[in-house]
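dumping this here before i forget
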Amino acid sequence: MPKKTGNKSGGEAMKYVIVFAILFAIGIFTVWGITGQFFGTQPEKPEFVEQGDLVRINFTAWHKNGSFFESGILEFRAGSGILVVKSIGEALLGMKVNESRTLNLTPEYAFGEYDPQLIISQPRVVIMNSTITFATTPEQFNQTFRGMPEEGMIVSSVQIPWRRVEILDFTSTTMTWKLMPPEGLKTGWPLECYSSDLTATTETDCYGTVTMRVIEDGERIEYKIEPFTGERVNIWGAWARVLEGDSESIYLDFNHELAGMGFIYHVELLELEKA
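structure:
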């Protein structure tokens, strides 16, 4: 009888097909399991700080001689420029949560090099016209002084540096005053400081007092500045320190008080929120 070979060869072929299908399925399941797509999740990858990310850091700083300087926790956006020590924000780029770094900062990368050109001379005696015109409305005047302005009106108030003024003229948008300070009046300097009894200063007050006197038949006023040497003060929107001057001038140092110093900062990234 002839041998039956067709079923045998077909059965073996079927075995190969089944084995191949099983191996293919195992491969697919393995790939899906690794990539997380079969289970609907991705394996967690560490996120790194980039520009604009919201970060929260813990930091400790020392002077170069090893003495403690400051420590604390800060929250800000990387690259926002809000830090005085901008190199700290730059050093965070590329860091991940719980990572820490130690920064050895030269003055250039800390609070800046000391620049002698940032010392500005201010004369001790300033002379200005006693008549000034400024932008205001009668309604604004009324809100401040509780009365509508009139030409020739004398206004007295400790809320104005000169204490007493005469209204020479006014329109719907401007007003002209004649300054009439009492002889020898002492007030805060700069004139935005309105303390009527200034014996000391703070960071948000003046950098000294000024003594006023009327000269040239009332047409001009002389201001003699008496500074508080060593005080840190806000002038023209920037911080400065008053230095010892001479008989004609005082000096304002706009360098940062820590300019020229190096520091060691240890920073740890506590939290990271991607932008």
